[in-house]
């Protein structure tokens, strides 16, 4: 989900005008990402070990898992390690972060444990961009060099009209299904959306979540709801590092409107790259090739 169109990601659980081919491609890629990542749920997921270049740290989108960033690897030079940051609560039941400041402190600690010395380039797509901005703030507050912040089609504020009330559980369950490559078919009047979600997952051996215990699958809507609430309540500050803004052009807001929304929160230089795609499909092969090339060029310069 993005601050650009806060309803986009959850509404995408029920595809409307999106091309069917793109939706099938999205589902196939999600299943492939799941298999390639091995279902690893560590707070820091090493997507690829690297060499001497600066490592890229990717903040999770709404679902909390960062396997989606595997699609970046063919486009980033092997000298750069790539790590995915992942939400608490995925691997085992535990208290979730209460606000963005706590989330940023937690991830900043994990980043510095992984790489004691910067710079610490950050990338976040959708809500992950809001998280990445907060992490950049925290690292700069500690005197660390971020070097590069990549904002993937997000704006600072998520609209509060997106409800996280109990009557939206069906929507959260549909979102889980879509994010993990299943067909999202749960309806608003479903009397037991969580049970239906589990039934659909158990009916597809090899689908990804089939081997997860029930408690872990049932925890996914809770993590999504918490990430949404944390992002909605957050009031971002400012960062000084250079910014690369990635804008999906098939959205209601223009690129200029999206970039202008960050005006009070970015003190460094801002480069903009437009990508001809929907927000939800930015990590599919064609758009990620353009995105990856833009990130790779700036990582090389940073190195």
TrEMBL record:
Residues in Thioesterase TesA-like domain copies: 57-299
Entry-linked InterPro entries: AB_hydrolase_fold, TesA-like, Thioesterase
Source taxon at top rank: Bacteria
Name under which the protein is recorded: Thioesterase domain-containing protein
Organism listed in the record: Labedaea rhizosphaerae
